[in-house]
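Re: folding output
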Amino acid sequence: MTEPTAADLRAVRAWHSRIAGETDITRLVHWRATLVSQMPPAATAGRMVWLVMAIESRTLIDRWLKELAAGGGETPTGRKTSGRPRGYIESYSPQAKTLALLEDVDSVLTEYREHWPLTCRQIFYRLVGAFGYEKSEAFYSKLCHHLANARRGGRVEFDAIRDDGVSTVTMRHFDDEEHFKAHVRALAENYRRNLLATQPVHIEVWCEASGMVFQLAEVAEKFSIRVYSSSGFDSLTAKKELAERICTIGKPAVILHLGDFDPSGESIFEAQAEDVAAFVATDRPWNDVTVRFERVALSAAQVEAYRLPTAPAKKSDSRSKRWDGETCQLEALAPDVIAGILRRAIGGLLDADQFQQDMDLQAVERRRVALALPAPSVRDG
């Protein structure tokens, strides 16, 4: 057998260096499984060198993966890493304790499937209330970690959970003329009347947590009511735009607000109500245009009625000095309870007879619009 060539040794050194500098667990697991498949042909000196390197590298990777699973560490070259996966986790195999937690998560997701996506905080509170898990930020952080990995590993559906998300600007661009025509036909088939247009009041829903927007929209959209999120911030831009919408629509408006029962949540609600009302009072086209803010949730009465878990007000919040009692987060309320509260609040503001007339007219108009469009081309199917 001949001695290893310079090319053999360079390949081995390059492979070793590549592994030593890697910080991605998923790629490490993949490389560990494919080491043998990349060996040089049999009966060469290069293969013998590769075999030795493969054994050393597997030992190295196995030791490193254990360190990363324990909560971070260093690469063999001393490079710091958090151990966080990137992309999908191809070989997701959580420990027995984590599996038990995920089985309880499955129960929560199944129970509230019609309210998907849930937020991590909603799952947390349901686990605390129904399964006796510890109500602490430490457990919440651990839960978020496991929920992220379970989604990456295919154990939990991505659509089941929504993190506080990203904002974007929608673009209505089309591939070509036929694509646009197909889009118009789809609009006709799903034609929806603006059911608020003939109502005596304009209604909007606002909530603190952006992750809950889609869940609340499942209720509000049926009434042509839009849901907005302030993400827990007192935005001047958002308040001015809200006032402009109200003045443009030109009729009384009611803003249904859902937020945490704490000094910050109450303060944001009051600031929004006062600021928007002041803008509307100055810019309204006539005196009938007014705005009223209604706190739908969370209130002290609801915290008591539903026996929700509470916590002391944060001492770091200067507004806590004027706060009497405990605090509670909106997501402590079960998703179906929130949906019911919001549905009743909306129903109490609508003219029921007018709403039914518009629903009947919507069915007639949908058929009329669809018949007015040309038949689809072969490309449209």
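--- second protein (sequence, then structure) ---
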Amino acid sequence: MTPVEDFIPPISRTIASPLRSGSIVAGDALRFCSTAGSDEGPSLSDFSWNFDDGRASGLKNPGLVLFEVPGTKTVQLVVSNSQRPFSPTPDSRTITVIPDTNAVPDFAVTQLTIPSTLAINQPAQITYTVRNIGDAAVSGQSWKDALYLSRDQYLDLNDSLLVSAPVSNNVATNGSYTNTLTVTIPTVEEGAWYLILSVNDEWQILERHRLNNEFAVATDLVIPRLTNAASFASSLSGDGDEKYFRIDVPAGQNLLIRLDDADNQGANEIYVRFGALPTRGTFDFRAATPGSADQQLLIPAAAPGTYYIMVHGESVPGSGQFTLQATTASLDVTGVTPARYGQNASAVLTVTGAGFDAGAVAELVASGGAAYRAASVSADSFT
């Protein structure tokens, strides 16, 4: 028996593309690639593709493969090397090649319109247009169109499905249809990504070509950037929903964050992390007063740099609408107690906030503008 500490797991040998088995028309081509090797180290040496028609490939990614002969083809992939075993059951796709003897439709994406700014964890509307360039109409049938998030322009198993929507339009030859998908970008790194539209995503309708159903658009995903002291309106869609924001803090400033729940019905939380996205388990600061709709968080003497803020809706029974305000300043006042005091009597007021020092001066200012300076002031440092 092999000792547990010496066990080496088999190599993953997943076919990444095409995503599924299905039927195509003779003369069509599919793109083949593998997920194997991304985390296997540099020692991978053997990729063995069998296309079940006398053709084979030793490449990790054979690319476009043309199918001209009708029949059922079981495409298999085995990956191995001299140090690691491989599964005795290879990954496979079953491709049924239909003779090109009848008129068939052929969907092609002609337009994919995305917002100029796509924000992480924020809803967005994506509009697209599809034309039937085939020689047969689509009538009385339904299919699904889907949108994926990808690091490259090619659809494969590494991509994340964002939304899938049923479609049941009648589309004449040379006719077209337009649709709109509402998506929320998941929590991913900011930067360069691709949105890939896949029409007839599950191959429910036989078409002359499959690959022109896919259409990729490059985009930069961002986290909404808060402007100092300006309120940003957003909303939570339900219990457990989360929204991310960021703010850049200059040197020598405090950071004060206020969340105002529009209808005061929710139970919300704020999590903040310096330089990286926070979670409920990983954060540097938080404001999570149990059951509170509004939250406030003060970070005194904040280190200069970028702070990421997560608003978590623990309970969202109402509209979920809220405003978030982040303020950077050298002096912040967050509260004064007591809130009321009798006339003609000495008062001891406690002022909370950040940026106070031994030279701080406190004054009460009447509605008419008269100022009454405190007889003495003492400041406690943050510990």
